[in-house]
């Protein structure tokens, strides 16, 4: 083909002839791209840079979250009878461990293994703490076994003595053989124990001074209940039943007569009668006092 014929090819312009890259010889335009030229537009560079920054920020945040998710502190509420340090030792929560991997159930079971813990609640506090809530058993009485003091709560659970914590000056319950056979953490299965607790509750309801007056409740292995006063251990023959009425009479009699004569001169008091109080003083004959006239 002669040059002048090439110039006359359909669809081919002078601009095409001057720029050989504009046509492929078939009249088709050739599209130039930035890739072909080896250049990346600045807008795309900014986009790629921003995306990389997001990935880096996300990675840093994940490291920070992982570190924040480690246990940094444990709080304790409800502890009265033993120290917070003792609770934390029994809970055995590993500091710096991942919070989400902590077995709350296992911690609760360790806490419930202590006789004084009636119930326990263990909660995660995000991002890095644990909360322990304790419901403790409250001693209401004590007893002696093999020369050692033991406490009892209202449910009859035997509790150990905790030296150095809250001191207790609780009435002693005696005359129940089952107490000597019940181990720490176990409950006494005996009706006399619960009657003894009801007697103490009636004394407290009557007046706190009456409750403080009682140092011991001897259940006499099913016989007539015998109380002992906290002042010089005066025997008080209490019998069974009508505890509220008897404590009302005892309070009046103690304030009106015993305070005047002196408890050290009193040999015993008998409250088993419905309408009178029988008292025996040292070196004096037994005397009856009309309950309704006191």
Radius of gyration: 44 Å
Task: Show unreliable segments.
Answer: 1-9, 21-25, 30-37
How much beta, percentage-wise? 15-25%
Strand adjacency order, main sheet: 7-8-9-10-11-12-13
How much helicity do the residues have? 25-40%
Tally of extended strands?
13
Q: Quote the average pLDDT.
A: 83
Offer a concise description of the structure:
This protein is α+β, with helices and mostly antiparallel strands. It has helices at 3-7, 14-18, 34-37, 42-68, 84-91, 104-112, 178-181, 191-206, 208-213, 243-261; strands spanning 73-77, 117-125, 129-136, 139-145, 148-153, 158-160, 172-174, 214-218, 226-229, 235-237, 266-270, 276-281, 287-290.
Describe this protein's structure.
With 294 residues, the chain is an alpha+beta fold. It has 2 domains: 67 residues, Roll (Ubiquitin-like (UB roll)); 155 residues, Cell division protein FtsQ/DivIB (Rossmann fold). Helix content is 35%, strand content 23%. The chain is built from 10 helices and 13 strands. The strands form 3 sheets. A 7-stranded mixed β-sheet has the order 7-8-9-10-11-12-13. Strands 1-3-2 form a 3-stranded mixed β-sheet. It has a 3-stranded antiparallel β-sheet with strand order 4-5-6, with no helix packed on it. Helix 8 crosses helix 10. The radius of gyration is 44 Å and the shape is elongated. The relative contact order is 0.06.
């Amino acid at each position: 083909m002669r040059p002048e014929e090439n110039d006359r090819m359909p669809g081919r312009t002078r601009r095409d002839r001057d720029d050989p890259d504009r046509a492929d010889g078939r009249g088709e335009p050739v599209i130039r791209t930035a890739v072909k030229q080896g250049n990346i537009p600045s807008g795309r560079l900014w986009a790629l840079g921003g995306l990389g920054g997001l990935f880096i920020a996300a990675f840093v945040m994940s490291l920070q979250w992982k570190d924040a998710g480690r246990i940094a502190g444990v709080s304790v509420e409800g502890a009265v009878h033993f120290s917070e340090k003792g609770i934390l030792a029994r809970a055995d929560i590993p500091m710096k461990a991942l919070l989400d991997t902590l077995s709350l159930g296992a911690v609760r079971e360790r806490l419930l293994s202590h006789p004084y813990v009636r119930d326990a609640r263990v909660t995660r506090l995000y991002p890095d703490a644990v909360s322990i809530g304790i419901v403790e058993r409250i001693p209401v009485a004590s007893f002696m076994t093999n020369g050692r003091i033991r406490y009892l709560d209202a449910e009859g659970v035997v509790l150990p003595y905790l030296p150095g914590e809250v001191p207790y000056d609780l009435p002693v319950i005696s005359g129940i053989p089952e107490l000597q056979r019940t181990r720490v953490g176990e409950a006494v299965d005996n009706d006399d124990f619960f009657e003894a607790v009801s007697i103490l509750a009636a004394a407290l309801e009557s007046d706190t001074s009456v409750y403080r007056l009682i140092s011991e409740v001897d259940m006499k292995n099913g016989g007539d209940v015998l109380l002992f006063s906290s002042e010089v251990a005066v025997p008080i023959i209490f019998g069974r039943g009508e505890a509220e009425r008897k404590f009302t009479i005892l309070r009046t009699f103690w304030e009106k007569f015993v305070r005047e004569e002196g408890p050290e001169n009193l040999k015993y008091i008998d409250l088993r009668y419905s309408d009178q109080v029988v008292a025996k003083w040292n070196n004096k004959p037994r005397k009856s006092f009309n309950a309704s006239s006191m």
